Amino acid sequence: MKARLIAVGERPPAWVSEGYGEYRKRLSHWLPLDLVEVEPGVRGKGRDVVRAMQDEGARVLAALPKHAHVVALDGRGRGYSSEQLAQRMEHWRGQGRDLAFLVGGPEGHAPEVLARADEQWSLGPLTLPHMLVRLVLSEQLYRAAALLANHPYHRA
């Protein structure tokens, strides 16, 4: 099983890239995780935000691997403890499909993206910068994989 993180936004700050890279490396033998950055829709004075979301959504959907189980990160999604996420990961492994995790733009996901998602996952009630979500997601996936492997990383 492989995973793809499809995220709206380009050129993260160095600290995000370094942190994501560290957890991606640690996770690589349990769940290879590739990042696909999607160009954000055009926003600004006189621009249509709905159109920007639609453009982002189309690019996100085009980046999806065929037959992947799609998990959209969304504040209205289901929240998991680390142990629950490990159980969810075990479920995903049992499906035998690749995974795609989706991080939307400033206004969230386009309706078409949410309609395509097999499930929605919330990282909690806080509003997080989208670049930080990349780092939190990769760390939590690593933690879940470490729990499943009985690795000492997770000390509850």
TrEMBL record:
It comes from the Bacteria. Keywords: Cytoplasm, Methyltransferase, rRNA processing, S-adenosyl-L-methionine, Transferase. It is found in: Cytoplasm. S-adenosyl-L-methionine binds at L73, G104, L123, G124, P125, L126, T127, L128. SUPFAM superfamilies: alpha/beta knot. It catalyses: pseudouridine(1915) in 23S rRNA + S-adenosyl-L-methionine = N(3)-methylpseudouridine(1915) in 23S rRNA + S-adenosyl-L-homocysteine + H(+). Its EC number is 2.1.1.177. It is an enzyme of class 2 (transferase). Specifically methylates the pseudouridine at position 1915 (m3Psi1915) in 23S rRNA. Belongs to the RNA methyltransferase RlmH family. Homodimer. This is Ribosomal RNA large subunit methyltransferase H. The gene is rlmH.
